[in-house]
Amino acid sequence: MQISRSFLRNNRGISEIIASLLLLLIVSAAGAALYASSLSAFSSSSSTFQQQIDQREEQARERFQITAVWWNTVNQLNLTILNYGKIDIAVDAVYINGTPASISSGRGATVGTGELVSVKLASSVLIQDGQTYEIVAASERGSKNAAYWKA
Amino acid sequence: MQLIGKLNQDKRGVSSIIGATFLVFILLSGFTFYILTVNINEDYTDVLQTIDQLDLQKKQENVEFVSVSTTNEDKLNVTVKNAGSHQTHLIWLGIFDETVTPNTQEYHKTDVYINPAETLSNLPEENITILEGQERVIQLVTELGNTFNSNYPPREEATITITGKNCTTAHNPSQWNLLGSTEHVSGSISDLANDDASYVFFRSYQTASSDQPLYAHSETTIISGSPYYLQKLTSADGTATSMSASMDTLGRQLFGKFVYPLTGVNSIPASTWTTYYRAWEDTAPSITFDGVGSGNNGGGSTSISWSHTTGSGSNRIMIVGVSIRTTTVSVSAITYGAQSLAFIRADTHASATIRSELWYLIAPNSGTATVTVTLSESSKATGGSCTYTGVAQTSPIDANSGVTGTSSSPSQSITVGTANSMLLGHVAISGSRDTISLEGTGQTLRWDQETTQGNPDTRNRGHGSDKGPVGAGSQTMSWTLSASADWAVSVVAIKPAPAAVGHADIDILIRQSDGTIRSTIATNVAVSGDLTSTPTTLSGTYAWIAYTVVDQTDYLEIDYYVDVTTAAVGINAYLRIDDTTLAISDQTRITNILLPSEYTAEVEFTGSSNLLNWTQLVWQIDSAWDVGQVTVTIQFFNFTLGDFASSGNGYTSYISSVTPNIDELKSQSIDLNPNDFKNSTGQWRVKIKGVKATSTQFLFKVDWVNFETTYSTTGSTVPYNIWQWYTIRATTAGGGPIPYGYVSIYANGTSVAFRNATDKASIANPAWVRLDARGELQLEIKSTTGSPETFVLYAVVGSVVGKKTITQEVP
Q1: Do A140 and A78 belong to one domain?
Q2: Which domain holds residue A9?
């Protein structure tokens, strides 16, 4: 009754209440939207960061070594690569004196920890007896291992 | 109500609540993200620390080989010691064989932990066999990724390594195949092994023919002791020669025999030959006075005789005239030496005061003899004889006539049937008072005789004159007497010897080199027209039938003849040959003979090499030709293409030197796909062809065929009988060279030879040799055992032994 009287006494009071309610609603909605957006952005950023860290972590755990190189025939080489890291690896490329070699077998094969893989390749660099060559093996994650081999 | 009132009283209160709420949410969210990020970083850091720890441990890991040996059962026995500061986990054991190509590697899984300072024996856990003398590299692989290598057998303080070097080996042909009709002349396959002017000769064969002339030349060749003139493809180039043949008798008379060697001629195809003869014959001689004799029987008798000398001219005749004062007396016979004359005619004066007779003798003997006239009765008589040459020997009397009369101008005509006849007139005059004061026109006094004793009126005169040669038709002989008298005139016309008639022709035959005739192909062919007394180029044709040469040492023989159809003594026929003054069209020759116009020599050489992977092929061929400017093609067989190379690698062509017999070395280096030029068994082939447009067969001289291949090798195998290069290197324990050290080298193969790879000087097996400044010996070895054999090459410096197991391949 008192409200009714108040309304009856002052017509402007009703308008202010409505206006205040509308304003409150708008501000709340905007704030909620802003918060949600920010939360999503943070979440995405966090996920990306997590992935980057995971990738680095995997790379950090990846260790492999060219344990042996042997001459098959002219310009045909075999590499034996040991995975001594803490994660599976896959050999993706081999470079001889900086020149990519053509891998005929062993590329992309998953090599478990403590396992060996034999990689056969054809050198695009002429292999000459007595010469020393830099042989670099690269994994799919981008890790590298270099060895110097004297033919 | 109170709330509404409150709201109504303070609007900021609601906003503050909302703002505070948001603030709380924001703070909570930020803290959550912070915690999350910290956790991620901590995890990552933990990983890095772990890996770093492993890397550190890896660096500190050290495994030393205490010993590498084999048991009595040839099982590998490795003893290792962990010299590092951490426990080591061995996970692989690798065994490498670097003495073979390709190298072999095998890894054996193991699971052995070695504590620091611990020594562990009897590795590996499984039995691995290594035979005595075998060389291996042993590798241990740890879990941390370290590898530790050792050699078996263990190396001493110094090492000697023997490694095969990229080798260049030369191969020469093992046989040749004659292509086409190429013939091997001399030389053996071994002559092709070196560029040493030791040749293998091949003879070319005819590959094309064309019509060519064969000229008759004056040069001769001897076949089985007999000379034969040569026929050549070239025109006259010598001293002109006139070959002669007598036309005395009928039939074919040989000018000469000409031969053309059939060397290099496979066949002579059919064609129509034309034979050209530069030929002629002697001009028929006219009747010529030879000699005269005369006599009388003085006061009379039954005979008359005188001496007469007859020359040696051909076609002789003797005419005798007899004057008889008694007309009842006649000539019974006349002889010249032992030869009897024949009667021609007699003319007796009607008053019976004088008689004239004419007799003749064909071919009176040369020399001096007595002419004897026998009279039927005794009478005064004179006689005279004339001999002539160039008179027909058959029916020499062309005509005769006679007349008697009484006047001072005896005269008689005669109808001559044969031109160039000679007239002999005999006038017999009764009494000797009157003389011949004048001869008739063209007449020549030959004799004038009178008898003697008694009244001159009882005597008589005989007078002989001749005239000629005269033309055919009526001819007259006359005389002028000093006074009128009874006379009797007898005239005879004697015919000249006929001109010879003949033509040229040929016989064609094949004569063997031993002088015997293989076959007579044609006789009396290519008949020309009749010869004349003027040198003329006559011709005749002959249809030659294709002939296949049986033996190229044979000769094509052309025998030139004159075929005399009318003989004439003393007449010769002539054939002119090799006369450079004559135009070619007038030279004696045969044209349109299909003789070789192109020759080809073609030989394929084959050889063996090796099955290694060549990096380069260099071929060299040194050869020559005994003629200049031969078009030469060299083609190696490309086994990938399945044909002889027609360009580029394995192919070359050139025109040989203008100068014959000049060695020309051709070579080519093939770096791209050199292996295309051998087959699966290492065989290679090369074809050499030489072609020249020539009528003369030529020779191909091959001095050297070299097929040099370069290949990469470890030296574990060597081809049979091929030098292979090895480097023997002595190094100290520190890896430095051992310069100028002496090394003992020895290979225990059945037949292994050594030589210095640099200067190719021979080295004994075994031998002591000095290393160079780099501690190296460049050694070539060659094994020539008849079957595959594996041997060991030893190199020893001090107590350090280097070994290389080498297998010689199948010969």
Answers
A1: yes
A2: 2-60
